[in-house]
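[audit] Reproducing an earlier prediction to check determinism. Same input, same settings, fresh worker. If the tokens differ from the archived copy the diff job will pick it up downstream; this log only records the rerun itself.
[audit] input (77 residues):
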Amino acid sequence: MLGTKDSKVNTLVQIIEQEVSGAIQNINEGRMEDAKAKLEYVKRITGKLNSLNSALIKSVNRELKEFEEHIKKVTAS
């Protein structure tokens, strides 16, 4: 599950990079409405990215806690 979320995060980051680059190109070409639309899309994708990052952090923390508990059990024996 952790790998799946990490992959989704990477995909969303790539989409954001492409869309921002496209928005900059649109601005340079004077197409402000197109740039605005791209930036609104980036805004939505960024929200999804933030949600995935939060879930990823929770997963890592949960796995770390389980690992720490396992280490305590092993060292106590």
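[audit] rerun output stored. Observation attached for the diff report: The radius of gyration is 20 Å.
[audit] end
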